[in-house]
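Work Package 4 report. The design task specified in the project plan requires that, given a folded chain encoded as structure tokens, an amino acid be chosen for each position. We show below one input record used in the internal validation round.
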């Protein structure tokens, strides 16, 4: 087993399913011990068992990442359990796809939901770890953006805005924390096969494949492996970047 993250403590938000779950397992395979956060306690319990089967420690915490008091209490618990946090993957986020539509008919309450879960949640969690990372002079923060930020998805104005907000947050924080040797980067996936994609009609999936130079939909591990790289010392000179993981659909 490649143990380039041996004995590092990693926190993954929204780890119960999809990209967060796959990334937590990739981090564990690379040697990290995990604290995993999600709303769905049963999914966390099965994930913790999988992490432990890989020989790593797991601390599952059922928390709503948009709830400030709950997030503060959760991170205090994690820090006291493990003693420190080396890696934070702010994965949690979602569009309000079932309420998606043109902006001129949109409801500000929906924007508030999308911004809270896709942008503010990352700021809240990061706020809990930066003090100790600065003091220690090390740390890795990885934020979840999306290809939607670059592309500007029709019907998803709020989500595209939130995910571009993640990129601005990543860049400004990277500059602030670089003197403390804390790296802050983002991943920006295109279409990845998670449960959200299970709900899409076959015609939409076909259209995505046709517009993707690589010709297929990505797997959650395609993101998880990049998260491991950004969490490792192999990427020590990379900060403030937003890495597209989309089979070549959007190139910068
Ligand atoms: N799947 C894709 O194609 C894709 C593409 C680009 C970006 N993303 C981003 O990747 C991230 C993960 O997406 P996914 O497709 O794996 O989704 P998913 O629905 O499979 O998993 C998301 C997880 O987050 C949890 N969660 C949701 N709200 C939460 C909250 N308030 N507090 C704690 N946990 C919460 C859910 O319970 C779920 O386990 C999101 O930020 C999403 O915007 C996904």
């Amino acid at each position: 087993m490649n143990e380039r993250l041996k004995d590092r403590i990693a926190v993954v938000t929204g780890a119960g399913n999809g990209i967060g779950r796959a990334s937590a397992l990739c981090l564990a395979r690379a040697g990290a011990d995990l604290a995993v956060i999600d709303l769905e306690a049963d999914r966390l319990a099965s994930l913790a068992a999988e992490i432990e089967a890989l020989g790593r420690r797991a601390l599952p915490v059922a928390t709503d990442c948009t709830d400030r008091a709950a997030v503060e209490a959760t991170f205090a618990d994690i820090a006291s359990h493990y003693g420190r946090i080396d890696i934070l993957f702010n994965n949690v986020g979602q569009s309000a796809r079932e309420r998606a539509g043109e902006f001129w008919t949109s409801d500000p309450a929906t924007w508030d939901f999308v911004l809270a879960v896709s942008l503010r949640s990352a700021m809240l969690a990061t706020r809990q770890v930066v003090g100790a990372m600065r003091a220690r002079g090390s740390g890795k923060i990885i934020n979840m953006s999306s290809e939607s930020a670059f592309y500007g998805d029709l019907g998803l104005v709020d989500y595209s805005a939130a995910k571009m907000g993640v990129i601005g947050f990543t860049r400004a924080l990277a500059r602030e924390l670089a003197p403390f040797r804390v790296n802050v980067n983002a991943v920006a996936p295109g279409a990845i096969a998670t449960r959200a994609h299970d709900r899409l009609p076959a015609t939409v999936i076909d259209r995505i494949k046709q517009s993707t130079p690589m010709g297929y939909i990505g797997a959650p591990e395609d993101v998880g492996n990049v998260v491991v790289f950004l969490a490792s010392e192999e990427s020590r000179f990379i900060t403030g970047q937003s890495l597209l993981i989309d089979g070549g659909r959007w190139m910068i």
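The chain has one domain: 9-236. Validation will be extended to a larger panel in the next phase.
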